[in-house]
Amino acid sequence: MTKSNAIVLTGGFLDTGSSKTAHGLIRGTDRFTIVGVIDSKHPGKDAGEILDGHKRNIPIYASIADFSKNAPEKASYCVVGVATKGGVIPDSLRALLKEALENGYSLVNGLHEYVSDIPELADLAKQKGLEIIDVRKPKKVRDLHFWTGKIKEVKCPKIAVLGTDCALGKRTTTRFLVEAMRKAGYKAEMIYTGQTGWMQGAKHGFVFDSTLNDFISGEMEHAVVTCYHEEKPDIIFIEGQSSLRNPSGPAGAEWIVSADADAVVLQHNPARKQYKDMEYYPAYIADPKDEIALIRIYGAPTIALTINTARMNEQEARAYAQQYETQLGIPVVLPLEDGVDNLVPVFETLIKKSLAQV
């Protein structure tokens, strides 16, 4: 894949959870080379240092004009890296996108509202010969797939990376797992199920929340089966979305049932007691032990727990990890702090078992 240079818009929200897409691109992407982040709050700093304290040589610029005037490298694309309320494009962001087009940048947008549906921006892009990529724009019905049962053709282990809530870092952990297995000498692949996974360069997948419900199971199966036949991987990791019990958007059954997951890695944040942005509603995040029992009922064992450490200090997080490891009898790791290399032997066992059954 040839990588194009890109800048990322964060609208001053780089240091918040609203910039999940930007965070993912800063941590790594095989589709773009990120040469700058546009964030008026942190100009002159390194985006990686703002994200997690690790320098990544991605400078932050105060504005698109600042980048265009001062950046040592040019860019072809401008990526919307921030989530907005309801996924709509507010006037402030619309003005930034217009400025990006006027400066010669094609647009990549993962919000629910499509830039290509805004006449002013679509016409400007056409006039300038620039591209608008609305990642969440659904496929035509004729291009969608129903579930067929071909998932049984996949003989390598399929690992669903699920969570006890949304916005816990499931995509990041999935990417870490793929990288760890590749570093260990295995051919590992990721199935993306969200817009940022596509932006990070995952080859196979679909955008879960933009897919007609009747076709979700089929698109899931098609992505996994296609990946298996085209890439011939030793193991496949499937990025999760939301959680089984999140009332605003329950998800997870399709990963276990339709994708026929052989096992689950579960991501959890012990400090989060209620579902994200639903503190007003009397629904509480399940203890991992109970979530693992539910996942088992759906048909898959949970073989590892990964901890999102937000709103905890490291000592608290490690105490939870030790507690869960004793209670659950499975490995528990802190992906951002320690990586996931300790889980490689767990997956090696699954790979060897799958090879023995072929």
Structural class: alpha/beta
How do the strands line up in the largest sheet? 9-8-10-7-11-12-13
How many domain regions? Answer: 2
- Helix fraction? 25-40%
The CA-CA distance between the termini, in Å, is 31 Å
Give a quick account of the main beta sheet: strands, pairing sense, barrel closure.
7 strands, parallel
What would you say the CATH architecture of the largest domain is?
Answer: 3-Layer(aba) Sandwich
Number of helices: 13
Beta percentage is 15-25%
How many E strands? 13
CATH superfamily of the largest domain: P-loop containing nucleotide triphosphate hydrolases
Identify the CATH class of the largest domain: Alpha Beta
Rough outline: globular
- Rounded mean pLDDT is 97
Question: Can you give a write-up of this model?
Answer:
- There is one protein chain.
- By secondary structure, the chain is an alpha/beta fold.
- The chain folds into 2 domains: 4-134, NAD(P)-binding Rossmann-like Domain (Rossmann fold, 3-Layer(aba) Sandwich), CATH 3.40.50; 143-357, P-loop containing nucleotide triphosphate hydrolases (Rossmann fold, 3-Layer(aba) Sandwich), CATH 3.40.50.
- The protein contains 13 helices and 13 strands.
- The protein has helices spanning 20-27, 47-52, 64-70, 91-102, 119-128, 170-183, 195-199, 213-231, 253-256, 288-298, 314-328, 335-338, 344-357, and strands spanning 4-9, 32-38, 60-61, 77-80, 106-109, 132-134, 158-163, 188-192, 204-205, 235-239, 263-268, 302-307, 332-333.
- Strands 9-8-10-7-11-12-13 form a 7-stranded parallel beta sheet, sandwiched between helices. Strands 3-2-1-4-5-6 form a 6-stranded parallel beta sheet, sandwiched between helices.
- α7 links the parallel β8 and β9 (204-205).
- It starts with a strand and ends with a helix.
- The model has no long low-confidence stretch (mean pLDDT 97).
